[in-house]
Specification:
By secondary structure, the chain is an alpha/beta fold. It has 2 domains: 2-215, Rossmann fold; 225-287, ACT domain (Alpha-Beta Plaits, 2-Layer Sandwich). Helices cover 38% and strands 28% of the residues. The protein has helices at 40-47, 69-75, 91-101, 106-119, 135-147, 165-182, 193-198, 216-223, 235-245, 265-275, 290-298, and strands at 2-11, 14-24, 29-33, 55-60, 63-64, 76-79, 153-157, 185-190, 201-206, 209-214, 226-232, 250-254, 257-262, 280-286. It has a 6-stranded mixed β-sheet with strand order 6-7-8-3-9-10, sandwiched between helices. A hairpin with a 2-residue loop joins strand 4 (55-60) and strand 5. Helix 4 (106-119) crosses helix 5 (135-147), helix 5 packs parallel to helix 6 and helix 8 crosses helix 11 (290-298). Bound molecules: adenosine-5'-diphosphate (ADP).
């Protein structure tokens, strides 16, 4: 459904996207995960025809994004980071306007509006003005609007940024429901690790480059073992001690914590606690996350 080959975008001598190559299958949720400035929005803007690439090619639903812009635009829906609804209009008026812009046949408009409002649970708000909606309701209405013209691909740029955790979880419920119901291909960008986890596959991006692509599970399994997070009275001294005295796969200081990757935490921890000379103030054992994957490739945490 999406085929990206050697995609690049430069602003004067700065390369925001460097030689990206990937494909997205029909019905897949494909996540782009990376810190701010990684090049995620630039990529989504090129894929959705809003920005011209400086190199490479992008084919969406069989159409080239630079040569057949209108065909691509008919094939996609976009949910932007910012609210782009008309606040003075009702939900129905916003959706009607979109139907007209996208030439949804007049006879199909009402049924389609009812259908998309039901997906996002806004049927009862059909005739309310958008300015009375909460942040979560507005985002849901934007998702509904993005679906009106039966797009093959839905682009979601940081779909839950600025929403509270509960509303974010709800938005995700709707997105998953949508995948099940309409078999839409979804391309989303995020800097939230838990959102990336929902994707079927994740591309991790940093400084304009895709550093790895796989299922969240496979990415984490690549790391193997467990992560032990430690706080100590003197992290620099403890790190040196860990690296010289213990059998760890990797150890790094992340902010005020030491992250140790070990093959088996059960076998490791009891001797470790007895033998570490630097006083320990905290110890936590967990499985690797996508942040650890990012850390292992770049030496930095995503929130940096
Ligand atoms: P992300 O969405 O991952 O936060 P962006 O794609 O917005 O990252 O930006 C990638 C890089 O490109 C950033 O360093 C940003 O400053 C730079 N950039 C984006 N747009 C422009 C522009 N119009 N001119 C110059 N640099 C830009």
């Amino acid at each position: 459904m999406i085929e990206v080959k050697n995609l690049s975008k430069s602003y004067k001598d700065f390369q925001a996207v460097k030689d990206s190559t990937f494909t997205v299958d029909k019905g897949e949720i494909f996540g782009f995960l990376g810190p701010n400035g990684a090049g995620k929005s630039t990529t989504i803007n090129i894929l959705s025809t809003m920005l011209k690439p400086t190199g490479g090619s992008v084919i969406i639903n069989g159409y080239d994004v630079t040569k057949h812009k209108n065909k691509v635009r008919e094939s996609i829906g976009i949910i932007f980071q910012e609210n782009t609804l008309d606040e003075k209009l009702t939900a129905k008026e916003n959706l009607m306007l979109h139907c007209k812009l996208y030439r949804v046949p007049r006879s199909k408009r009402k049924a389609r509006i009812d259908e998309v409002l039901e997906i996002v649970d806004l049927t009862d708000s059909l005739n309310s003005t958008v300015e009375k909606f909460s942040g979560g309701m507005k985002r849901r209405l934007e998702i509904a609007r993005g679906l009106l013209h039966y797009p093959k691909v839905l682009f979601l740029d940081e779909p839950s940024v600025g929403l509270d955790p509960q509303t974010r979880a709800h938005i995700w419920d709707y997105i998953l429901k949508l995948k099940e119901k309409e078999n839409i291909t979804m391309f989303l960008t995020t800097h939230y690790l838990d959102e990336a986890e929902i994707s079927d596959r994740v591309a991790i991006m940093d400084r304009g480059e895709i550093i790895t692509i796989d299922t969240p599970k496979a990415l984490k399994q690549q790391l193997g073992g467990d992560i032990i997070e430690l706080t100590t009275a003197d992290n620099a001294r403890a790190l040196e001690e860990i690296q010289t005295k213990f059998d760890v796969v990797d150890a790094t200081i992340v902010e005020d914590t030491i992250h140790c990757k070990v093959e088996n935490s059960d076998a490791f921890v009891s001797d470790f606690i007895k033998q570490l000379e630097t006083p320990l103030t905290g110890l936590d054992i967990r499985k690797p996350t996508l942040n650890d994957v990012f850390l292992s490739f770049t030496g930095r945490a995503i929130r940096d």
